[in-house]
Design a protein that fits this description.
This protein has about 350 residues and is an alpha/beta fold. It is built from twelve helices and 14 strands. An eight-stranded mixed β-sheet has the order 13-12-11-7-10-9-8-14. Helix 4 (about 80-90) runs parallel beside helix 5 (about 105-115). It is globular and about 60 Å long. The structure holds nicotinamide-adenine-dinucleotide. Nicotinamide-adenine-dinucleotide binds near residues 12, 16, 43, 78 and 125.
Length: about 350
């Protein structure tokens, strides 16, 4: 095992960035948050005082030689510029979803990362729930067999107050609605376990709030292995749930319905035969639970940085997620059944914004 290093971190944007700060502080032997950056001092000052970090501007942060990793937690339309600048200044970068606004932009970011000393890790913290990790382990171990169908339900509630943040609800600044901002994690959980899509059809509309972007969507996917998946997503559900079901030849797997922790245990795994039950037991019977959410992702990221291996979520993963979103938005707009991959001369390669 390589020796664990302590890495100094700056966190940019202190909305969800405060969740990053909390997670990093639970990993004190791996990361130290030494600087925070937010033009809103009512956000940056209290955090800085509480943890003993400096309040800095973004430029000052990039010039800090002691800072090795920059966490970009700003509104989405700022991510490309901030990630490219941080990589160019020699930092590694952790960037909140959605990393950027188009396949063209993510390809620029892939080039920037390839030319840089640092690595860039997009955030998909729901991947690291122990329930989802168990299902993934069973699939990777070859226990699942043929996939038949999967389903994803994201039924959350967002009221007008949520759209008080001026960047929310608008195509130019939020870049999308329930598909991009809320269901993106559930879609990533789907493809993480069941594999990439090869055809998608989607309907999307705005019915819940007085906003530009979609807040209700339904999609049907054909995955690369020939299995099917359905997705429904709304921001108008009085009871909030997130639920995944995977139906494989050997077992079915169903998440709980806790809206913001559906990748955590417990999941219900129903084996088809006693032999499958034994195989399931041999893979997950003595499961050692690991940290979840941001802490779970950042701990694995620290391990990858120490070992010089791939981050637990890569830009290629973020590209796959953006490609699926691009296809969903294109299908919703045109009524087409969209085949993937999308070529770089596809009308949506430079973005799905209307
Ligand atoms: N992974 C998740 O589950 C999750 C959850 C919520 C939000 N997010 C993502 O995190 C990002 C931020 O969302 P949020 O909910 O925290 O938004 P927010 O509006 O609450 O916070 C964004 C913060 O960024 C600051 N900011 C704006 N411009 C800045 C700049 N140039 N430099 C530094 N700071 C700047 C703002 O002052 C604000 O405090 C978005 O991309 C969002 O999609 C991810």
């Amino acid at each position: 095992m390589p020796e664990a290093a302590l890495r100094r971190v700056g966190v940019v944007g202190l909305g969800i960035g405060t969740a990053h700060v909390r997670a990093l502080r639970r990993l004190r032997d791996r990361f130290a948050v030494v600087a925070v950056c937010d033009p809103d001092e009512t956000r940056s000052q209290p955090v800085a005082e509480h943890i003993g970090a400096d309040v800095v501007t973004f430029d000052e942060l990039l010039h800090r030689d002691d800072v090795e990793v920059v966490h970009v937690c700003t509104p989405p339309a700022l991510h490309l510029e901030q990630c490219v600048a941080a990589l160019a200044s020699g930092k590694s970068v952790v960037c909140e979803k959605p990393v950027v606004a188009s396949l063209a932009d993510v390809d620029l970011l892939l080039e920037a990362e390839a030319a840089a000393a640092g690595r860039l890790m997009p955030v998909f913290q729901y991947r690291f729930g122990n329930g989802l990790q168990q299902v993934k382990a069973l699939v990777d171990a070859g226990v699942a067999g043929r996939a038949y169908t999967s389903s994803v339900e994201v039924a959350w509630r967002r009221r007008p107050e949520y759209y008080a943040a001026p960047w929310r609800g608008r195509w130019a600044t939020e870049l999308g609605g329930v598909l991009l901002s809320q269901a993106v994690h559930a879609l990533d959980m789907l493809t993480y376990v069941a594999g990439p899509p090869r055809r998608v059809f989607c309907r999307a509309t705005t019915r819940v709030n007085d906003i530009e972007v979609e807040d209700c969507a339904a999609a049907s996917l054909e995955l690369a292995d020939g299995s099917f998946a359905t997705v429904t997503a709304t921001l108008g559900s009085p009871e909030e749930i997130t639920r995944h079901r995977f139906h494989f030849a050997a077992f079915s797997a169903e998440s709980g319905t806790a809206p913001y922790s559906s990748s955590s245990l417990p999941w219900t795994i129903t084996p088809d035969t006693p032999e499958v039950a034994e195989a399931v037991e041999s893979v997950i019977g003595d499961w050692a639970e690991r940290a979840e959410e941001w802490q779970g992702q950042f701990e694995r990221w620290a391990d990858a940085l120490d070992a010089g291996t791939e981050p637990p979520v890569t830009l290629a993963d973020a590209r796959a997620s953006l490609e699926l979103l691009t296809a969903l938005y294109w299908s919703a707009r045109t009524g087409e059944d969209v085949a993937l991959p999308l070529a770089d001369d596809h009308p949506c390669y430079r973005g799905w914004l209307p």
